[in-house]
UniProtKB/TrEMBL annotation:
Domain FAD-dependent protein C-terminal residues, every copy: 292-484
Protein name listed in UniProt: Pyridine nucleotide-disulfide oxidoreductase
Lineage start: Bacteria, Bacillati, Bacillota, Clostridia, Lachnospirales
A Pfam entry, by short name: FAD-depend_C
InterPro entries: FAD-binding_protein (IPR028348), FAD-depend_C (IPR049516), FAD/NAD-bd_sf (IPR036188)
Origin: domain of life: Bacteria
Protein species of origin: Catonella morbi ATCC 51271
Length: 536
C-alpha cells in the first residue's frame, strides 16, 4: 500500500537478477537524484526481463514512487525534464450501483467462463443479482470428472476441459497478457479482481502474467462465493436449450428442454466450443458470420533448451522462458506459435464423443520438464466452403473425428523427423511427452490437409534457424490443435452489444469478440456496463 505523498512514475529502472526490495529503493533514489528521506514509499507497476544482450540480462521495472512535496516540485520544475519520469494519476473503474431496480427479471448469463464470470461479478456488485447458467459442473466436481477422463477416457459431453465452471481457461496456462487496448481501466480491474480472490499479486506488474490452472480453480471458488453473497445465483449442470422472442425482443429462455424463465436480458458467454448452442441460435435466426481461425499441432521441447536459448548462462536464475515465432507457409499462409506454455503439459481437451483435440496447460510454478506450444496455420472461410456460418464448425469437427479414429481416442503422438518423412513413430527420442490423457503413436499428417502439413514443416524448419534445436528430429508433436478461436462471430450492435434480437447479448471468445482470459473478461465487463446503463 502506497503511503500518502506526491506520485511519480519512474520507468526503465534497471535491476540485477536476484534483486531485493532495498535494491529497488536505492535505484529509484539514484535515478531521481533525491535523498533517502524524500522517498516516502514505492510500488512496482511493471516488471520484465530484458534479455536482448545475453551478457547483460537484467530486470527492467516501472515503479510508482511517493515523494515529499519538496522533491516532487523540484523534479517537475527542473529546466530539463528528467528522462523516464512522469506524473502518475491512478484511475480506477467505477461500477455504478442500482438501488431501485424496477425490472421484474434479473439478468441471465449463459456460461461461466471469463466473459460470463466477470459480467456476473460486475452485475452483482451493481446490485442486479444475476443468474448464471452453466451446463457443466462446479470446479470442484469438474476437476474430478476431467481427471477421470484423462485416466480412463470416459468423456462427459457437458463437463470436460471445455465446459464447466471457468470455461476452457480453467484447464490452461491461465495466461493473462492481452493485445487489447482499453483506456477505461477495465484490464487493471480484472487483474485486481483475480488478486482479490486468490491470484498471486505479481500478475499486477509482471510483463506476461499468468495464474496457473491450480491457482485459478481457487479463484473461481472465491469469486462464486462473492457473487452469491451479493445476491447472484449459480445453476450448474443446467443446459440452455431454447428461447422465444416477440417483436424482436427476448421474452424467455428454456432450460433442460422444459423449464421456462422470463427474461429481459440474456448474456451469451458461450465459449468457442458450444457447437450445439451455435446451431440452436443459427436455427432461430440469430445473425452470425464465419471467421478465420488456425489449425495445427502442439510441439514439445525441453524447457531447459528454451530457457538456455533465451537467457544463456542465467537461465536457472530466471522463470521458465517462453517464445513467440512466426513464419510463412504454403500459399502465403501464416504459421506461428500459439498459447505457448512454459513448463507445461499437453492435455486432451475433447468435448464431443468420437472427436479428439488438444490444448496446453500449466500449473502456477510451471515446473514440468517440457515447454509446449501450438504451431498453427491460418485457415480462412474459403478453406472450409463458408456457405453458412457453421461451416467452420463442421471443418473443425471433421478434423477431430479423423484424429479420434487415427489414435482410437488417444492423443496421436509423432516425432518431428517422422512427421516430415510421413511415417508413424515407434518410440520417443531424448524428449518424452508431458501430457494428460492417453497417447498413441500415429501419423498426424494423415489428419491434416496437405497445405497445413507442408506449412508446419516449412515453419518448423524456419523456427529451427531462429532457435537452435527447435526442429530437432525428436521434437514431440501431438494432434490436433483445432480450436484456437471461435470459427464464427455472432453479430452484435457496436453500441448496445445486442444481437439482431434485442435483449440477447453475445460476448466473449465464443461470440468472436475476444481471444484469451483477459480480453474475454474485459468484454464481460463491457456487457455488464451496457446492462447497468440500460437499467439506470
Amino acid at each position: 500500500m502506497m503511503k500518502e505523498g506526491k506520485l511519480l512514475q519512474v520507468s526503465q529502472v534497471k535491476l540485477p537478477i536476484g534483486y531485493t526490495a532495498e535494491d529497488v529503493r536505492k535505484a529509484c533514489i539514484r535515478k531521481l537524484k533525491i535523498n533517502e528521506k524524500e522517498l516516502i514509499s514505492y510500488e512496482t507497476k511493471k516488471k520484465s526481463v530484458d534479455a536482448r544482450k545475453k551478457e547483460d540480462i537484467h530486470y527492467s521495472l516501472s515503479v510508482v514512487v511517493s515523494l515529499t512535496d519538496k522533491a516532487y516540485n523540484r523534479i517537475l520544475s527542473a529546466r530539463k525534464p528528467m528522462q523516464d519520469v512522469s506524473v502518475y494519476n491512478e484511475e480506477k473503474l467505477e461500477i455504478k450501483r442500482i438501488l431501485n431496480d424496477k425490472s421484474k427479471n434479473r439478468p441471465i448469463i449463459i456460461g461461466s467462463g471469463p466473459a460470463g464470470l466477470f459480467c456476473a461479478y460486475v452485475l452483482a456488485v451493481a446490485g442486479l443479482k444475476p443468474l448464471i447458467i452453466e451446463q457443466g459442473q462446479d470446479v470442484e466436481k469438474r476437476t474430478e470428472t476431467v481427471d477421470k477422463f484423462w485416466t480412463t477416457g470416459e468423456l462427459s459431453e457437458t463437463t470436460n476441459v471445455q465446459f464447466g465452471e471457468g470455461g476452457a481457461g480453467t484447464f490452461s496456462d491461465g495466461k493473462l497478457n492481452t493485445m487489447v487496448k482499453d483506456p477505461f481501466k477495465r484490464i487493471p480491474f480484472v487483474l485486481e479482481a483475480f488478486v482479490k480472490f486468490g491470484a498471486d499479486p505479481e500478475i499486477l506488474y509482471i510483463n506476461k502474467p499468468h495464474i496457473g490452472t491450480d491457482v485459478l480453480k481457487n479463484v473461481l471458488i472465491n469469486m462464486r462465493k462473492e457473487i452469491i453473497s451479493l445476491g447472484g445465483e449459480y445453476r450448474f449442470e443446467t443446459k440452455f436449450t431454447g428461447f422465444e422472442e416477440k417483436n424482436g425482443q427476448i421474452k424467455h429462455i428454456v432450460l433442460n428442454n422444459e423449464e421456462i424463465l422470463p427474461c429481459d436480458e440474456v448474456i451469451l458467454a458461450l465459449g468457442h466450443s458450444a457447437r450445439d448452442t451455435f446451431e440452436l441460435l443459427f436455427s432461430k435466426g440469430i445473425i452470425m458470420t464465419p471467421k478465420p481461425f488456425a489449425v495445427g499441432v502442439r510441439v514439445e521441447h525441453p524447457q531447459e533448451m528454451i530457457s538456455k536459448y533465451q537467457y544463456g548462462k542465467m537461465y536457472d536464475r530466471l522463470p521458465p522462458a517462453d517464445y513467440k515465432v512466426t513464419s510463412t507457409g504454403v500459399e502465403g499462409r501464416g504459421v506461428y506459435s500459439f498459447c505457448m506454455c512454459p513448463g507445461g503439459y499437453v492435455v486432451n481437451s475433447s468435448s464431443e464423443k468420437g472427436g479428439t483435440l488438444i490444448n496446453g496447460m500449466s500449473y502456477h510454478n510451471r515446473d514440468s520438464e517440457n515447454a509446449n506450444s501450438a504451431i498453427v496455420v491460418a485457415v480462412s472461410p474459403s478453406d472450409f466452403g463458408a456457405d453458412d456460418a457453421l461451416a467452420g464448425v463442421r471443418y473443425q469437427r471433421e478434423l477431430e473425428k479423423k484424429t479420434f479414429r487415427l489414435a482410437g481416442g488417444a492423443i496421436p503422438v509423432q516425432l518431428l523427423g517422422d512427421f516430415i518423412e510421413n511415417k508413424t513413430s515407434t518410440g520417443f527420442g531424448l524428449i518424452n511427452t508431458e501430457s494428460k490423457g492417453k497417447t498413441a503413436f500415429a501419423n498426424i499428417s494423415d489428419i491434416l490437409p496437405e497445405y497445413i502439413t507442408q506449412s508446419i514443416i516449412i515453419g518448423m524448419e524456419d523456427f529451427g534457424r531462429k532457435i537452435k534445436g527447435f526442429d530437432r528430429e525428436d521434437v514431440v508433436m501431438l494432434g490436433v490443435e483445432s480450436r484456437t478461436s471461435s470459427p464464427l462471430r455472432i453479430v452484435r450492435d457496436n453500441d448496445t452489444f445486442e444481437s439482431n434480437i434485442r435483449g440477447i447479448y453475445p460476448i466473449g471468445e465464443g461470440a468472436g469478440y475476444a481471444g484469451g482470459i483477459t480480453s474475454a473478461a474485459v468484454d464481460g465487463v463491457k456487457a455488464a456496463e451496457k446492462i447497468i446503463e440500460k437499467r439506470l
